[in-house]
Amino acid sequence: MNFEQNNKDEDFSNTDKQTNSLISEEPEQPSQDKNQSFGSYIREVIKFFILAVVVVMPIRFFVAQPFIVQGHSMDKTFATGEYLIVDEISYRFNKPERGDVIVLHYPRNTNIFFIKRIIGLPGETLTIKNGKVSISEKENSTPLVLDEPYVTFLKTDGTDDEVVVLGEGEYFVMGDNRASSSDSREWGILPENLIVGKTFLRLFPFDTVSFSPGQNF
């Protein structure tokens, strides 16, 4: 409406000086409208910012968090450059399970994040021999040899053979690329308090978009 009025004002000013003198009294109204419009815009921007702070930021820090995969320790389940959303809230209600792909704070430097798969749970005895992993819950129980279809590259030279007994709140994690992964075989058990969350959504590349990526085993 203001745009049309301004065009009309310009037409008048070009054709009739006397009319122009009358119209010269009118600019106060468009100027006021513009000020109101600008004020409304500022208010909307402020509302949006407040909404982002009150709603989005808590979600960002306490519910879900984005990460970009770097390195080859989870080949071929995840590749460098993939963009993941990590669920940070589920483990407040349920304990981590074997097979979950998680993001964690690296125990030797908690400013660094790793992505690994949970293999051993609290209270279990885990045995690695020639690349195969077996689990027993009691000292004399029959070990369960894990079926791990997500593992493409095994490490079978015996250099990581070991037996690990996990205590309360302790987890054993490994990368799916067993031949090239810095994980619990190298730096030890993972305390539960260093678990950030589990993979919830893969957003990029677009042809790999999926929910619960890496969890379907």
What does this structure look like?
The protein starts with a helix and ends in a 6-residue tail after the last strand. Helix 1 packs antiparallel against helix 2. Strand 5 (125-129) and strand 6 (132-136) form a beta hairpin. It folds into two domains: 2-61, no CATH class; 69-204, Umud Fragment, subunit A. The model is unreliable at 1-29 (pLDDT under 50). The strands form two sheets. Strands 1, 2, 3, 4, 9, 10, 11 and 12 form an eight-stranded antiparallel beta sheet that branches. It has 217 residues and is α+β, with helices and mostly antiparallel strands. It has helices spanning 2-15, 17-23, 28-63, 184-187; strands at residues 64-68, 83-87, 101-105, 113-120, 125-129, 132-136, 144-145, 162-165, 170-174, 190-191, 195-204, 210-211. The chain is built from four helices and twelve strands, in the order H-H-H-E-E-E-E-E-E-E-E-E-H-E-E-E.
